[in-house]
Design brief:
The complex is a heterodimer of chains A (328) and B (160). Chain A is α+β, with helices and mostly antiparallel strands. Chain A has two domains: 5-228, 2-Layer Sandwich (Creatine Kinase, Chain A, domain 2), CATH 3.30.590.10; 239-325, no CATH class. Helices cover 47% and strands 17% of the residues of chain A. The longest helix of chain A is centred in the C-terminal third of the chain and has 29 residues, at 209-237. Chain B is mainly alpha-helical and 160 residues long. Helices cover 51% and strands 9% of the residues of chain B. Chain B contains seven helices and two strands; from the N terminus they run ββααααααα. Chain B has a two-stranded antiparallel sheet. The longest helix of chain B is centred in the C-terminal third of the chain and has 22 residues, at 114-135. The model of chain B is unreliable at 156-160 (pLDDT under 50). Classes of the chains: A alpha+beta (328), B mainly alpha (160).
Chain lengths: 328, 160
């Protein structure tokens, strides 16, 4: 399924039972929330990088958002902080909408691995601190849309053909009936840059964590089947045209000297499509790595200094050329 | 019936307006309907809103723990603290059921402390004894056990 599913993620919302929710906290309470979280995690074997939002540079923060390690919302929180595990597979946002947002990531279709990671962190914290919990409503969160399990399970899926054949509206309706939502990840509004979408559960109460994961997986499987059918059909109908489209993008990404993010995302989609169908000499893993590394703030951060937009576009194409051709 | 807008002329038409997802039905006279149709919506809306706020003029409920008013939640969609769920339970339950589809948690629970586990086991044992006492019609013993169980249960907050 990794021809279509790019990555899996599980997010848990938790709140300490003795502090008001972040938007009602005093700065002192906000700091206390950060301190107790750090102390509770002191003895875990994994190492975390601690990133208080107020001390972090704009470029670094943006790069974290692009990597989906933190949310754009966290940037606006004065007492906001993040803990990023050294392997990048877990991030804990402190003082976002809830006291804690524990996120775990896994490449490809692997919600189970992500969930196991997230719950291991949650249990380490719960062993030392009390989370707000109600027998009827489950884990209590600032917004009632997250109560119960406090869990959001999601998968990033690449659906170029379903997008091209205008199937996303239909797909959305089906998902909504199952208590799930599908939306574009990159780009704003209805635009889904790179034809990348996120499927996630909307309902958090009254279902077990397993049921939630299974519902998301089931829809991802269904989408995978649909997308594959459209890919095969297109290949049957006009294989030269289809291959031409993939190879053109491959050619551009391997040779361009200055490429803007929007253009990169459009060609990236064709590159991954070709990789997933075994038509291009590239792995999907490399495509997924380039997806993150090719985002503007990531390019800038890799350079280690502020760059102009034009320089970013040049560095981006350098990165792509090196990755795809091995040359300079 | 008199027109609800001017209160002078006889009402002849029934107008339904949807405000904030709630429909409000009003009886209007032809003159006021004209005003309404002519696009003088603002006047009508203001009237409808006045009507609605009048309807909603109930005493404000606030959370005793963080002091947040329920009206604040209605605006922001965010609660102030975990205790708000207790304070606004009656107002929140229908809302939660609507949004979430269900109103009973089914997922993981915090692990109980050893103390808490012991307490719950004791209560369970006493309940079994009490039922046995009732079965043999030893009501005196059953009442004693009932009081013992009550004493062990956490103090329940008085229902409003």
């Amino acid at each position: 399924m990794n021809d279509i599913v790019v990555s899996s993620r599980v997010r848990l919302a938790r709140n300490y039972d003795d502090l008001p929710f972040p938007h009602k906290m005093t700065p002192e309470q906000g700091d206390a929330c950060v301190v107790r979280t750090l102390e509770a995690l002191r003895d875990v074997p994994e190492s975390y990088r601690f990133i208080p939002m107020k001390n972090e540079g704009d470029m670094e923060k943006k790069a974290l958002v692009e990597g989906h390690l933190i949310s754009p919302d966290l940037l606006l929180r004065k007492e906001g902080a993040a803990l990023i595990r050294s392997d990048g597979a877990v991030s804990i946002m402190i003082n976002e909408e809830d006291h804690l947002r524990i996120q775990a990531f896994a490449p490809g279709e692997n919600l189970q691995a992500a969930a196991e990671n997230a719950f291991r962190v949650e249990e380490a914290l719960a062993g030392r601190l009390n989370f707000a919990f109600d027998g009827q409503l489950g884990y209590l969160t600032a917004c009632p849309t997250n109560i119960g399990t406090g869990m959001r399970a999601s998968m990033m899926v690449h659906l170029p053909m379903l997008t091209l054949f205008k199937q996303m509206g239909k797909v959305n309706q089906v998902a909504a009936k199952l208590g799930l939502t599908i939306r574009g990840i990159y780009g704003e509004g209805s635009e889904a840059r790179g034809n990348l979408y996120q499927i996630s559960n909307q309902v958090t109460l009254g279902r077990t964590e397993r049921e939630i994961s299974e519902a998301v997986s089931a829809v991802a499987r269904q989408l995978t089947e649909m997308e594959r059918t459209f890919r095969e059909r297109t290949l049957e109908k006009d294989s030269v045209g289809f291959l031409d489209q993939m190879f053109r993008s491959y050619g551009l990404l391997s040779n361009a000297r200055r490429m803007q993010e929007k253009e990169f995302m459009a060609h990236w989609s064709n590159l991954r499509l070709g990789a997933a169908m075994g038509k291009l000499p590239v792995t999907t893993a490399l495509c997924d790595e380039l997806l993150t590394k090719g985002q503007s703030a990531q390019v800038q951060q890799a350079a280690g200094k502020p760059l102009t937009n034009r320089e970013i576009d040049e560095k981006r194409s350098d990165l792509l050329r090196r990755a795809l051709t091995g040359g300079e | 019936m008199l027109c609800e807008e001017c209160g002078e002329r006889q009402a002849e038409v029934l107008v339904t307006t949807v405000v904030g997802g709630e429909s409000v039905t009003r009886h209007l006279c032809r003159e006021c309907l004209k005003k309404y149709q002519a696009g003088d919506l603002q006047a009508v809306l203001a009237a409808v809103l006045a009507l609605m706020t009048q309807k909603e003029k109930q005493p404000e409920i606030t959370c005793p723990h963080c002091g947040m008013a329920f009206s604040e939640f209605e605006k922001s969609g965010m609660l102030g603290c975990a205790e708000c769920y207790q304070a606004f339970r009656a107002q929140l339950t229908p809302l939660i059921t609507k949004v979430q589809g269900r109103a009973q948690h089914a997922g993981r629970r915090p692990r109980l402390s050893a103390e808490e586990q012991e307490r719950q086991q004791k209560i369970e044992a006493l309940r079994t004894q009490m039922e046995a006492a009732v079965a043999v019609e030893n009501f005196e013993e059953a009442a004693r056990l009932r009081d013992e169980i009550r004493a062990m249960e956490p103090a329940r907050e008085a229902e409003a």
